[in-house]
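tool_call: predict_structure(chain=1)
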Amino acid sequence: MTPRLLQVDNFTPTRRTPWGGTRIAGDLKRQLLPGEVGRVVGESWEFSVEPDFPSRLLDGSGSLASWIDSAREAILGREGDDGRASTALLVKLLDTSDELSVQIHPSDKDPTVREGESGKPECWYIVAAEPGAGVYLGLAEGVTREALGDALRHGADITAMLGFVPVSAGDFVLIEAGTAHAIGRGLTLVEPQRVQPGCRGLTYRYWDWNRRYDAAGRTDPGGHPRALHVDEALAVTRWEAPRGAALLQRCLVRAGSPELRGAPTWTPLCGRDGGLPSEHLHVARLHGTGAFDLPEWDSLRAVTVVDGELVIDGVTIARGQTCALPARPAARRATLDRAHAIVSAAY
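tool_result:
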């Protein structure tokens, strides 16, 4: 059960990500895709069993999903023991030259979630941030359902109704169900998500900055707006949830810039045994130089390298690559060479 490298160019078409930038192909994956410098890429599906954008093994031997099926118990570990037929983990790289739409996800238990659908808990690890960049998180103090609903139905600018949080490289944000959120411009990040296997993760869109698009997905004042889900979004919003500083205490870790030449350092970011509490996602950061014994999670993990190089069981994971690390055997040793990586799993 050796780690398996995944394809490096599983990109969302630009018509679906008109906000995309050039840093995924032109920076993170420059050495892997030298002919793609300058290409606009909003999303790279690094680790996915989702049918529309499935990950494939880099050696061409099949899909991530079929590899999991070949040895489900050893690969999935606890996820398989809990009855899952595949993994609930989805990991993307995102890069933005414009704001994403303002969105919200319901919980799995919300009445709006039907059979074949799933909530979509997610988190963001900031890899790079332009000066002044930030994320929109939660609602501003005093914003009521009536006021927000009225503004949305009249096409008003709701920026002042949202909480804006400046971020920098090394910051980590955990998004709970029922929390309004949007990724701002000028950010490159790793986005682990949890979507129940075989289900469609639900996203409701409050607002899209009153933008319009042509048939190719480019912004065009004479085009058409994206579909909004105002009623659904308002219905699943947690109006009683903390806002402002109280919200940030629950969902923000400022881990700081990683030291790549020092001894290997492991930082839990979220999960059940360290970092921010999460019942859905298990995420940690690993950085430095030297040998390091990975904690035994008994889970299928995605290891996404955003700087340097990481070797696990003889498999080299370069900058811009993601590998699938089977749950078993549990003991794994990594060798880091000025490495910076995010390790993710789903509960």
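agent: The chain has two domains: 4-254, 265-346. Proceeding to next step.
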